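Side project, low priority. Logging it here so it doesn't get lost.
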Amino acid sequence: MINYSFDTSDPEVFEYEIADLEVQTGFRQLTQYRVYFEMDGNTYYVGVTQSDYYAYQVGDRIEVKEYQGFLNAPYRVKE
């Protein structure tokens, strides 16, 4: 949380092809909507809103912002 909360870096913007979509229901019925993409041979995901999730299909393009992070641990978000 500190890495994100105190980060003041400017993001780099990337566009990726959506590789997969997933809905996860976890503890206390908390639902997360995830969009997976590949970068440098690895698979990553970003959380999206329910409406964004249902608007996307595998093969669509998604814009992802990458921040350096306060603790120099990069993180990616869909804004």
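Brief comment: The domain at 2-77 is CATH 2.40.50 (OB fold (Dihydrolipoamide Acetyltransferase, E2P)).
Revisit when time allows.
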